[in-house]
């Protein structure tokens, strides 16, 4: 689950990914959900990073090369933009490609670079409150936002388990924790 910051405050953000076509050389990405230009670019970056991670984790898995994917961000009638859903998009794509569910009790936010670095985001307070409202107790924030979180009122931080990360590989270990512990 992703976390978003809107003019109305923080909210949770669901990212859905499904395979719509399969065949050698069919690798592509379609996006829907009223995504703005920056969010579309973030999805393209997430697709590229997901491919690289899958090549590293499962070298024989040709899912991305042979699958046309459809990434959707519900509520389709609501415009969405910004780069901070990149890490959530990668998690959604990898979950599908590897057939491994991501943790359901986890929310995350962070812009991702082509090399998998996690960049700072805005709206830390609003996103923390949104997670609490959705009964999510474990959150991943970029390491660069640690000070922003530390400065929040205690009643906002109370009961939250927060992980601060610099790279997507750290998110991978947290998002697919049950899978990596048994591997």
Automatic annotation (TrEMBL):
SUPFAM superfamilies reported in the protein's UniProt record: Ribosomal protein S5 domain 2-like
Any one GO MF annotation of this record: serine-type endopeptidase activity
Family (UniProt): Belongs to the peptidase S16 family.
Active site residues of this protein: 84, 127
Protein name per its UniProtKB record: Lon proteolytic domain-containing protein
GO biological process: chaperone-mediated protein complex assembly; mitochondrion organization; protein quality control for misfolded or incompletely synthesized proteins
Organism: Aegilops tauschii subsp. strangulata
Pfam families in alphabetical order: Lon_C
One GO cellular component term: mitochondrial matrix
Keywords noted in UniProt: Hydrolase, Protease, Serine protease
Domain annotation Lon proteolytic: ranges: 1-178
